[in-house]
Amino acid sequence: MQAEATASTAEIGAVETPVARPRLVPTLSIVVPTYNEKGNIRPLVAAVASALEGRLWEMIIVDDDSPDGTWREALAVARDGFPVRCIRRVGRRGLSSAVVEGAMSASAEIVGVMDADMQHDEKLLAPMLDLVLGKDPAQGQVDLVIASRHLDGGGLGDWDQSRRKMSSFATSLSKLVIGGAVSDPMSGFFMTRRSVFDAAVPELSQQGYKILLDLLSSSPQPLKIIEVPYVFRDRLSGESKLDVMILAEYAFLLIDKLSHGFVPPRFVLFSIVGGLGLIVHLLVLQLLQATGAPFLQSQAIATIVAMTLNFILNNVVTYRSQMLRGKDAVFGYFIFVTACSLGALANLSVANLAIQNVESWAFAGAAGAIMSAVFNFSVSTAFVW
After folding, report:
1. In degrees rounded to 5, what are phi and psi of residue 234?
2. Would you give the distance in Å from CA 129 to the centre of its chain?
3. Which of 113, 131, 211, 259 lies 20 to 30 Å (CA to CA) from residue 358?
């Protein structure tokens, strides 16, 4: 019996190790960040399939849980046999972080990035891929290929004058971070080696929508870059995502890079909202004073109004990627008010300590205000949003 048991144990331990089956690994992984782009998914996949016929590729659609069901359409296209994968992100928003997440899941050694709205010319994918693969002897090893709207032969399409000026201004600001290395650092259409992403990812800000600028400013080593011209096309379906917040997030990216990560961009916006709250507080206080209301009552009302405004603005702007709704918003509001009340006490304590050591009201007031802002931001980030 003992021998039989030993034999059985030996047989169990002798399970054959599975052998990996050979499969076709794509040469190119195309990362497409999406939000409410359901109507563009099938046309985009069909256009890319035609442009890359005869080549091995995959498309990684990274969808921020679109209300229009973009992720469902991506899954349906994949089930139809196209080389499409979908990453559905719940509770997270942002183009840059979506691209990084897609690039980190890429199977290919070369990663391309393009939008889903058909405004990027898919016919450039093949020649861009050949450049990164080093098939052009005149160019040699290439690390990054950028499709540029600002080279001869490129263009901005039907953009109106105000949008052209906005793009030109943003491009000029980018020179503060990367100099004049490329003509179109705002491009969302580029191709690079997976190793470039891997090397830069620890330093990536992942703020806002300008992932190329983030990548260029975060790369630890110089990159050999080639730009190819293209004309920006009209959107096929859906609505443009360009709004004031995109411009603000671009400013935050610049702040993050210029300060080398020392100043959190979200703290800057939180402080701006706090400044607006202070202005509203003073306006309400002055209005109530004009009606003859008692000071303490007026101060309490003005404080509540300012705190409420600050919570609303921070919820829809500063922390919009984690926006609170329904019961969560009500609960978060009370935590926010409590934090701000404690922050006011911290303000007074620090200001009082400062005035005892440095006889300057301005210095003491500034020290208290900074302490209050840092405290409120830290508590709000940790416990409210």
Report:
1. -75, 150
2. 25
3. 259
Between strands 144-148 and 84-88, the pairing is unpaired
Question: Measuring CA to CA, which residue among 304, 229, 106 is closest to residue 312?
Answer: 304
CA 346 to CA 368: how far, in whole Å?
Answer: 7
Kindly report the backbone phi and psi dihedral angles of residue 228, in degrees, each rounded to the nearest multiple of 5, phi listed first: -125, 140
β-pair partners for 60: 31, 85
Residue 290 to residue 20: CA distance in whole angstroms? 80
| Cβ atoms of 25 and 107 closer than 8 Å | yes
Tell me if 26 sits within 8 A of 108, measured CB to CB: yes
Q: Is the pLDDT of residue 261 over 90?
A: no
Residue 90's Cβ-count burial label (10 Å; 0-12, 13-18, 19+) is exposed
Element (H, E) at 320: none
Can you give the pTM of this predicted structure?
0.70
Phi-psi category of residue 357: left, alpha or beta, with phi > 0 → left and psi -120 to 50 → alpha:
alpha
Cα distance between residue 145 and residue 124, in whole Å: 10
Q: What single-letter amino acid sits at 196? A: V
Distances (CA, A) of 122 to 192, 231, 384: 16, 11, 43
Q: How far apart are CA 321 and CA 310, in angstroms?
A: 17
Measuring CA to CA, which residue among 326, 346, 124, 143 is closest to residue 233?
Answer: 124
